[in-house]
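Q: Fold this one first, please.
A: Sequence and structure below.
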Amino acid sequence: MKENKYDDPDFFRRYSEMPRSTQGLEAAGEWPALEKLLPDMKGLRVLDLGCGYGWHCRYTADHGAAEVVGVDLSEKMLERARADTHQPQVRYVRSAIEDIDFPADSFDLALSSLAFHYVVLFDQAIGKVASCLRPGGKFVFSIEHPIFTAQGTQDWYRGPDGETLHWPVDHYFREDERSSVFLGATVTKHHKTMTSIVNTVLDHGFRLDRLVEPTPPERLADHPDMVNEFRRPMMLLLAATKM
C-alpha cells in the first residue's frame, strides 16, 4: 500500500509549519552533508524522487541543471511546488517512486531526500532508478537510518522527569513495517537493515562512492531540536554511480 498522509489537510497543515517547510534547505540538518555529495549541475538532466515542495528541484535548476523532473505522490505537495517554482526547466509529475516509468538514459542525476523509507518495494524502486539513469550517472539519496527506524516508535526512552535516557534499538534484523507518530498522525515506514539498503543499490549495477551518517551543522548544534541528534544517527546518505 502506498501511503500518502501529505494530502490529509490537517497533516499537511502541520507539515507546512515545520522549519523545513518554511525555511527550506538551510533548515535541514543533513543538507550540508548531502550538498557535498552532489555533482556539478551544469547541463545535467535531474530526477528528484519524493520532491515535496520542490526545494531540491529549484536548487539544481539554480545551479545549472538543464532539465529537472520532480516526482511526488502528494498532490498538495506538488501544488505547492508548482506555485513556488519559476524556473522553466523544472516540471513535476505525480507518481509513487516505485511506479516511475521514464525511458532508459533519461537522466544524469537521480536524487531523493527522506522518501525511500516510505517505499514498500525498495528493490523495485532502485531498479527503476537504475533503468532511467545513463551509464556514469549519479544517484544520491537520504533515508532514515536503520538505527532510527528499527524499534518503530522513533522516540527516546525517557526518565521520570521526561529527560532523554537512551535511544531504543530492537528487532533490527526484522525487515517489515514500523508504525510511528509524526505530526500527530500514525505513519507507516518500512525498516531495512544497512546491509539491505547498500546491497540493493549494488545489486542494481551501482558503485558505492560515499556513505555518510550526518550530524547537524555546528551552527545548529545548540538548537533545542538538534541537541540530541548528536547521540544517535537519524539519517543515512548514499552516493553511487551507475556502472
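Q: Good. Now the second chain.
A: Here it is, same layout.
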Amino acid sequence: MKKFSAVILAAGAGTRMKSSVPKVLHKLSGKSLIDWVIDSVESLKPDNIVVVLGHKAETLEKALAGRNVKIVYQKEQLGSAHALMQAGKVLKSYNGDILVISGDVPLVKPATLASLLKRSKENKASVTVLTAEVDNPFGYGRIIRGARTEAGSALEKIAEEKDASASEKAVKEINSGIYCFDKNVWKALSKVKPNNAKKEYYLTDTVEILKKEGKKAAVCPARSAFEVKGINSRAELEQAEQALLDGKISSLLENGVTVIDRKNVYVSFDAKIGQDTVIYPGAFIGRGVKIGRSCLIKGSSFIENSEIGDNCQISYSYVSGAKTGNDIKIGPFSHIRPGSVLKDNVKVGNFSETKKSVIAKNSKVNHLSYIGDAEVGENVNIGAGTITCNYDGEKKHKTVIGAGSFVGSNVNFVAPVKIGKDVLVAAGSTITHDIPSGKLAIARARQEVKRRKERVKIGE
C-alpha cells in the first residue's frame, strides 16, 4: 500500500447529541466513536495519525491519552477545510497521501478505507472521494459527475445541501466525508473561500479547485451506505448499536451458539462465545468477554472483562474482571468482582461476593458470604454468612484458608490470618489468629442459660 497519513476531524460540537459529552466520546458497543475510527485507521499502518480537536478539546485529549496520535487544535470551528488546515502544521512537509475521515464514522471497515487508498493510487488522482448511494440524500453533499466516458464518469464537484440546485439535490450519490488527497491538498486548501450559505470553509470545495489546476478528481463507491454513515444524534447512535448487535448475534447463531431471544440480550462486538453455549433472555455480555463451550448464561446476568471456562452456569449474577475454570456455577445473585479467580468445579451461590480472591477447585461459597483478598484451597466448604474482614480502615489484608477445611456458618476471619489444611472452624466464630492444620477452632462466647425475669406489662 502507498504511504499515507490519516487526519481525523473531531473538532465539532455535535449539538444534535444534546449532551455535555463530546459527540465522538459517546460509546458504541462499549467503545467510543473516535476509538472505532482510530482502530480502523491504525490497522492500515499509517505513517501518522493526526486528530483535530476543538470543542471540549481538553476532555478529548484526556480520553486519547496513550493512543499513538498527534493532536492539533481548531480553536474556531470554521468548517472542515479550516479543520484540515490545522493538520498542515504537522503534515505540510509530508509527501505521502492524506486520508481524511471524521471521528463520528465508527462503522467504516478497514477494507473500505484500504480500497479508497488503492483507488486513489490506481487513478493517480489528487483527490478521491468515498461515496455511497442512499434513498434519501437530504442533508448530504451530492456527488456531481461529468459526462460518461469509457473510463466512467469523472467527479466534477460536490454540491452541499444548502447550496445545491434542484437538479443537484435529486442526485442520490452522496459524499461520505472520507477523502484521500495527495500533497496538492495544502495548496488547494489555501484557496478555499467561505463563499457559501454557512460562511464556512468547505473541504468539498477542494475538488473544483484541484480540477481547475488540471488535477484529477475521482470517486470510490462504498459497498454499504450504512458503513459510512456518521453518528450525529442519539437516534443514529441507537441505529448503529442495533446494527452491530444484530450482526453479532447472527454470527453467534451461525457458529453454534443458541440465543433464546435475540431482542432481549446484549452482546458486545468483541465477545467470544463457544459452541453449544445458551444465552437466555436478559443477559448483558459486555466488552472483553470470552465464554467457553456448553455454558448457560441465565437471567439478567451482567458479564464484562471476564473469561469463563467450559460447561459453566451463570444465573442472575454480576461478573466483572474475573477468570474461571470449567464446570463453574455462579449464582443466583452472586457478585464476582475484579481479581476473582475461580478454579474448576467451584460454586459461588446466592447473594455471595468474591473480590481479588483465588478459590481452588471443588470449593464452595454457597450462601450470603463475602470472600475478599483471600486464597481458598481445594475442597473447602465456606458456610453461610462467612466474611473475610480484609480492611482495617487503611489497608487491605489477606486471608488464607487451607485445602479440605470446613468453615461453619457466620464466621468472621479478621485478616491477616492463615488457616491450615483440614481445619474445622465452628459456626459463629470470629477468628483473629492463625490456626494450624488439622485443628478445630471455636472462637465465640460460651452460651449461658439463665432464669428469665418476669416481664413488666406495658401500662402498669
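Q: Anything worth noting on the second one?
A: Helices lie at 33-42, 57-63, 80-91, 110-123, 166-169, 185-189, 205-212, 234-254.
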